[in-house]
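step: validate -> pass
step: tokenize input -> pass
step: predict -> running
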Amino acid sequence: MTKEFLATIFPSEASIPKSFQLHEKIDQREYLINGELISWQGDLSPVLSPVCINTGNGYEQKVIGATPLLTKKEALQALDSAVQAYDKGHGVWPSFTVAERIEHVEKFLMRMREKRAEVVNLLMWEIGKSLKDSEKEFDRTCDYIVDTINELKQSDRRSATFQNEQGIMAQIRRVPLGVVLCMGPYNYPLNETFSTLIPALIMGNTVVFKPAKYGVLLIKPLLEAFRDSFPAGAINIIYGKGRDTVGALMETGKLDVFAFIGTNKGANELKKLHPKPHRLKSILGLDAKNPAIVLPDADLDNAVAESVMGSLSFNGQRCTALKILFVHKSIVNVFIDKFNAEVSRLKPGMPWDPSVGLTPLPEPGKTDYLQSLVDDAKQHGAQVVNENGGTVIQTFFYPAVLYPVNKKMRVYTEEQFGPVVPIVAYENLEETIDYVVDSNFGQQVSIFGKDSAQIAKLIDAFASQVGRINLNAQCQRGPDTFPFNGRKDSAEGTLSVSDALRVFSIRTLVAAKSNETNKGIIGKIIRNRESSFLSTDYIF
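step: predict -> pass
step: emit ->
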């Protein structure tokens, strides 16, 4: 493969398959506040696709639409709507029974599934995600919603009983926390966003939702579903630059929960703006620098296959991606040869190509940033060891495998979030342990090998440093029933289907001395359905 071959990677307009063409720009002006879709008449922010069009005379990055550049005024209107809808816990949405909230979420899911093709196409065009992965993200999100509903049903069934301890009878239930600001990432703008948004809603909180910086238009097909499925003010959706909108929301002190997936720097800056940070509950998914450690006795074919997918799936633009590979010096040369061979088999192309393995990058300036990491590594002794590594064509960056990497290089500690793969040759296990212990991040680690004693040593060293240790497999989030968290600067709070319901709620109980008078009162409340909290209803 040569740079000339890469020069043909971008299509002409006519060569794009008809089923994936965008026939006209999507100038979205609608935003959702208090149950109404409001048409914005102000400035719009253009949405550029990572896909460039080959005009025959050069390349043009395709503009696929625009979104509203809302201001502080509209953001505060959305917040006021959420505050009023919550009404200190007495609003319509938080007062609904669990069964009633489930009905509304099920209605939304039904409407959402009708928009699958449209959302999948926009995922491809907006962030360059392959057709297969875009379909997987949509379907996985729907499955997550179903699993969330089922988990809430089970939780509510457990809560429908009374406990009797030391002469005190009590019913313990989970209730909402208040008003939530929900912000998701561009790399999984549907799945990871909804992994906080849906649990927040279904637990009775009201939400202000601001879509990711990239992957914004794909929310447009779902706006009417949000409007029609939930009471006014339960969900409010705004757009615009974060500095013009999100900061103003924080400064009011009216937010009770901050659900954010992005950088720890961004999270820290926003949290500081809240006047009562001790009252702000944060659920954060942040940066990561997940290492792979390949032991001398590792199954190299498996280690290579998992490391290639772990480091380059969706071009390495995943918080769970393998960001640095530690390979024992006795096998590092063989590992690199096999690794490069696998990388060469990844097909560069457009997202709709069914066999594509590498696609363009959505972030403006990303290729320049990645090139700066490569140049820095070269200055400190590394080489690009794979053929054509680091080749750039417009928004496309061909993976660069760097070796030997050392701690003088930025890429040794800096999260690249893209297709640059640093490889470090190590001699002693302590070198890898020190790396993880000294790192500012602590999400996951992958260990490849067969020696149980060495693996056990690493497990015990890393159990207090990261949220998940993967054996002979790449780092990953799923299955969604498993806890997803991190330490240090990588996360705050735990997400999984069950954990998410817990982090967006708090346990509250009604307790009384277990005597005949109190039993009579509580029995009457339950029989006459006088309370939405005290209930022994069983949700099927």
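step: describe -> The longest strand covers residues 44-54.
step: cleanup -> pass
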